[in-house]
Amino acid sequence: MITARAAATFEPVGRSVATARAFVRDTLQGWGYTDVVDDAVVLTSELVTNAVIHAGTAADVLCLRTENGVRIEVADRYPEREVPLQGTGRSLASPDSENGRGLLLCAALASRWGVDYAPTRKHVWFQLDLPERPVGTRSAGPVVPTELLPVTDERVRVAVAQIDRHGAITAWNEDARHLFGYAADQVVGKPLGDLAAWPHTPGIGTGIAEALRLSRWEGSYGIRGTDGRVIPVYASHLRVRDTNGEPSTVCLLVRDYERAVLQSPARTPVDSSKESRATDPFEVFIGSPAPDDLDGLLQRTVERARDMLDGDAAFLLLATDDETELEVRATTGLPSARQRFARVPVEAAGTGRYSSARMPAVHEDLTAVPGAVPLLNGTGMRSVVTVPLKVEGRLTGSLGVAAEAARRYTNEEALRLQFAADRIALAVESARLGELERLRRGSLSFLVEASDLLAGTLDRDQTLALMAQMTVPTLATWCAVYTIADPTSDPYLSYVLHEDEERIDGLKALLSKIPPPEPVPSPGASVWTAPADAARQAALRTSMRELGLASSPVSSGIGTSRATAAAVGGETVVLPLVARNRVIGMLTLGKPSDDHFRQEILELAEDLSRRAALALDNARLYSERMAISQSLQRSLLPPGLPRIPGVEVDVIYRAAGEGNEVGGDFYDLFPIHDNAYGFAIGDVCGTGPEAAAVTGLARHALRLLAREGLGGPAVLERLNAAILDEGARSRFLTLLYGELWPQEDGSALLKVVCAGHPLPLRLRQDGTVEPAAEPQPLLGVIDDLELYEETVTLDPGDVLLCVTDGVTERREGSRMLGDDGLADVLTACTGLTAGAVTTRILRAVERFAAEPPSDDMAILAMRVPEPHTD
Questions:
Q1: PAS domain: from which residue to which, for each copy (predicted)?
Q2: What is d(CA 864, CA 491) in angstroms, rounded to the nearest whole number?
């Protein structure tokens, strides 16, 4: 049943992929479907890429919310495109293939998927089902409406039974009678063990009687009802004293499938002046019996372990995949330096008589064996008991409880702690694997978006900024990027970012004062201690100045020193940026005081660093080649316009294409000899570098030949021969070439040759416009040209306008500006200066169509001014 829908259409352009990802992410998060967001984003990215990039059509994305999950459809408008399907004799594409990867991901991640065809479009859809959750569990995310909360068959009943020191039942409430069928007089005085179906662990003799003697315990077992059936229950046992000081245990039990949390105020003393009743000192809270997030489960485990053995501290470490190290994941009662993700070797995590964390260990006095438990060094703890967490014989972690007093623990406490560890090990391992799977899918989504962002720019500075912004705060608290210009150069601090913007300047100042990390080409993260050491020294010097122990004046950066020390006081790692077998820089990631990186984050950072290194090197190569290209292109343009006595000259030049300064159109204006000037405007077939090469040949050949004293026809005939000599690289060329002589009477004499080029237009003072030359054959096509030159006289106030076809062929749909449209614009330019004429022509071209010009364009105007009258 569909309960909600959201739809959007994305144009066939590259940026639509990122926009579609954001649309799906926002939609699913708004629906509260955070469990499937990452998978949905990855699949949508692949399918929309297929539509807008490969198929080249718009993509329609439809999100449908159902009771059990979400269905997403991506439609393109290219139904003829084949999709490889199983069962048709054609298999899905291999992972190394460029095509079909979106379908491979659908097959791997989706609950169901398929392809539907219509006459005008193709739909690729996938279904993601929400994971099942036990009744009563809760998870982070949007608040669930009341009507969507899980319901039970009836009100939740909490059975309360009180047990004496011998394990016999002394109290039995009405809810217990309702749940199990026994009236109070039927069970009072009988051992609870007669009713309990206890799940024993092989090799461990601890049972219900031992559990009742624990200070606090929670878990699942069964109670045999009056009909002989075993009823699964979730129970909490709390050790108390009755009014006579006798030890007693209160058991709170609910149906196991309801998974109720049963809690009591920690260590609340019982007032002996009041009559003891089983329910007086307790409060019942209904919620999740075990947090579905790993961190919450581990934290609650260490707190219960500490309370169970009445310890001062507790810790839990999880094994890495290779089981060679243990990673601190939860602590209580320990200083911040022992916080999460610090690592210790397995053989040193709980050493002692067993020399390994793989076996239980009891240390009666740590002062007698310094360094036996590295995690507790300098904490003041004297005695400790540690036990392994194992699943099917494989080490998955270590649980420890410590006390400040010596000789607090014996093998009996180790047995009790091992019993609890065996009960929790499978749940911890299941939660850990679930977390790893979520991290893996989240990492995949993160890397997809990171790759898309990095591929979207070739600007070096923007690439550096993106690298830092993607790591902070997702992967680290702060980030610094060092770059290496060449193998002989030292690393240079190029970019610094901190999640607190007010600390960026202090962090940059600190890193600038210490030597950069060594560029190591080997992959992986390496620890760098220099920033933390320098920050601590700076903070120490500041403190000494404040106390008057240093002779130098107090620095104005006292607050900054302390803030910086806190900001970089944790673990700092360096990842090499390697591209094309060369180290081009280092990515430095840092944590605040006493924090450590977890291995999964470092592996994700390493994947990101490889992508970022290639993007940074591509930006460097692009910048270098762009600089070379622009330098060469600038050499093809005239260095400047000469001042011609008695003639105004102005030129506007626009090359088509991003980053191009010169294209197939060109112009030139140069002195030939005293009082004689040459001018040219031409158009090489095509655009880009190939056309620019012919541009350079034409412009330089014109100058050389003209200064040899050759006339216009001879100059163009020799240029035609030079173009044909280029062979396969030759391109035909339209060219207007002329020579200009200013006259003493204020006019200007011109001799022009128009070889296949748009005709020059002459604007007279009375507003009439007429061609100033006749068309002749273009260059670069035939060997034998017979060209001639024409003479034109510009009277005072006249304008000669020369343009390339980028002006006359400006289009808007089926309309074209054309020669007549240009003449109409020029007619309105009477009395304007040469600069005003070129500006008005350019404005008319730009306004003629909404799209930017797609062809090169050159506009040359020469005007003979009227004589000044006093």
A1: 154-190
A2: 60
* Locus of tokens 């990452």: 38
- Cα–Cα distance, 682 to 733 (Å, whole number): 7
Residues 300/288, Cβ–Cβ less than 8 Å: no
Residue 276: what pLDDT?
34
Q: Compute the residue count for the chain.
A: 870
What is the pTM (predicted TM-score) of this model?
0.54
The pLDDT value given to residue 403:
92
d(CA 344, CA 428): 19
Residues of 549-559 as b/e, b for ≥16 C-beta within 10 angstroms?
eeeeeeeeebe
Distance, in Å, from the CA atom of 775 to the CA atom of 819, rounded to the nearest integer, reads: 14
Provide the total of helices (H) and of strands (E) in the chain, helices listed first: 19, 34
Query: Which residue stretches of 309-410 are H helix?
Result: 346-349
Burial 87-122, CB ≥16 within 10 A → b, else e: eeeeebeeeeeeebbbbbbbeebbeebeeeeeeebb
Within 10 Å of residue 666's Cβ, how many Cβ atoms? 29
Whether residue 473 is preceded by a cis peptide bond, meaning omega within 30 degrees of 0, is: yes
Which has the closest alpha carbon to 41: 104, 92, 96, 105?
A: 105
| Structure token pair of residue 775 | 């068309």
Ramachandran region of residue 552, left (φ > 0), alpha (ψ -120 to 50) or beta? beta
For residue 224, which phi and psi values (nearest 5 degrees)?
Answer: -75, 120
| Burial of 285 from C-beta contacts in 10 A (0-12 / 13-18 / 19+) | exposed
Contact 795, 864 (CB under 8 A): yes
Tell me the two tokens of residue 254: 């609910």
DSSP class per residue in 301-332:
HHHHHHHHTT-SEEEEEEE-TTSSEEEEEEEE
Instruction: Measure Cα distances from 102 to 58, 92, 172 in Å.
Output: 17, 10, 61
Residue 789: its pLDDT value, please? Answer: 93
Question: Which one, of 852, 737, 866, lies nearest residue 802 by Cα?
Answer: 737
Q: What is the mean pLDDT of each successive set of 10 residues along the chain, which is 870 residues long?
A: 84 83 83 80 86 82 88 81 43 45 72 82 87 45 48 76 89 92 93 80 53 68 88 80 79 74 37 35 33 75 85 88 79 70 65 56 85 81 90 86 90 85 85 82 84 87 90 89 87 90 87 87 84 78 62 45 63 90 90 77 88 90 80 75 92 74 79 92 77 80 91 92 79 91 92 94 93 92 89 94 91 88 93 93 90 84 82
- Output the DSSP codes for 219-262: EEEEEE-TTS-EEEEEEEEEEEE-TTS-EEEEEEEEEGGG----
Q: State whether residue 580 is helix, strand or coil.
A: coil
Q: What is the pLDDT of residue 315?
A: 92
CA distance 271 to 251: 20
Answer left, alpha or beta for residue 585, where phi above 0 means left and psi between -120 and 50 means alpha.
Answer: left
The count of other CB atoms within 10 Å of the CB of residue 493 is 16
List Cβ<8 Å contacts ≥24 apart for 373-380.
Answer: 373/349, 373/400, 373/402, 374/344, 374/348, 374/349, 375/315, 375/317, 375/328, 375/334, 375/338, 375/342, 375/344, 375/349, 375/400, 376/313, 376/334, 376/338, 376/402, 379/313, 379/334, 379/335, 379/338, 380/404
Tokens 């591209």 -> residue: 579
Angle at 829 between CA 824 and CA 832, to 5 degrees: 170
CA distance 843 to 848: 9
Q: Which stretches of 270-394 are DSSP H helices? A: 294-308, 346-349
Q: Distance (Å, rounded) from C-alpha 533 to C-alpha 541?
A: 12
- Structural contact between residues 823 and 830, judged by C-beta atoms closer than 8 angstroms: no
The string over 838-857, giving b where at least 16 C-beta atoms fall within 10 Å of a residue's C-beta and e elsewhere, is: bbbbbebbeebbeeebebbb
- Taking a C-beta distance cutoff of 8 angstroms, is the pair 521, 546 a contact? no
